[in-house]
Amino acid sequence: MPRLGRLLAGAAALAAFGVMGALACAAWSRAHATAHAAQAQPGEELYALNLVDGDGRMQPLSQWRGKTLVVNFWATWCAPCVAEMPALEKLQREFAGRNVAIVAIGTEDLEHVRQFRDRLGLHMMLLAGGYDAIALARSLGDEQGVLPYTAQFSASGKLVHTHAGALKPGQVEQWLGSAD
Fold it and tell me: Which is deepest, 1, 23, 98, 149, by most CB within 10 Å?
C-alpha cells in the first residue's frame, strides 16, 4: 500500500502541474492577444466593413472616414435601443452639416431593420449587421455585449468615446461638442 500511495500522490502532483501549466499558458495567451489587440486601431475593422442598409443597398463604412462618426449598436427587441432612436435621428439632422455622421448598426437581418425603420419613420442610416454586429461591438470595447452600445470615432478614425447601455440625455451632444 505505501507504494500505491506514493504512485497516486505522484500522479496527483503531475496532474496538478499539468493543470497549472495549462492555466499559465491560457493566461499568457490572453495577455498576448490583449497586447496585440491594443496595437491595432479599433476603427480599422469598422471602416473595412460593407453592410446593407434598410433599402438593401450595400454601404461601405469607409464612406464616413474623415468625419466624426457615432456608431450605435442596437436591436429591435431592446427597449432602450428603441427609446433612443428618435434622439439619435434628431442628432443626425442637427450635426449633419458639421462633418458628423450617426450610423446605427442593428444586430438583426435586413428585413427586421427595414420593418423597424418603417415603423418608427426613421431616415437616419440604419444598417443590418446581423449577429456579427455583436462581435464588432465587442471589438470596439463592448466587453459584456450590452445593447445599446455607442462608440464615437474622431475624424482621424480614433476611438474617443464609448458607452454601454442607454445614452444619458445630452451625452452625445457633449461628445460632439468636444469634437469641434
Answer: 149
3-state secondary structure 22-87: HHHHHHHHHHHHHHHHHHCCHHHHHHCCEEEECCCCEEEHHHHCCCEEEEEEECCCCHHHHHHHHH
Q: Three-state DSSP class for 126? A: strand
- CA angle at 131 for the pair 105 and 117, rounded to the nearest 5°: 40
Q: Which residues pair with 58 in a beta bridge?
A: 52
Tally of residues, the chain: 180
How would DSSP label each residue in 136-158? HHHHTT-TT--SSEEEEE-TTS-
Q: Record the pTM.
A: 0.76
Given its phi and psi angles, is residue 75 left (phi above 0), alpha (psi -120 to 50 degrees) or beta? Answer: beta
d(CA 73, CA 167): 12
**Residue whose C-alpha cell is 471602416:** 47
- Judged by average pLDDT, the poorest of 11-20, 81-90, 108-117, 162-171 is 11-20
Q: How far apart are CA 91 and CA 75, in angstroms?
A: 19
Q: Give yes or no for a contact between 108 and 126, defined as CB atoms under 8 angstroms apart.
A: no
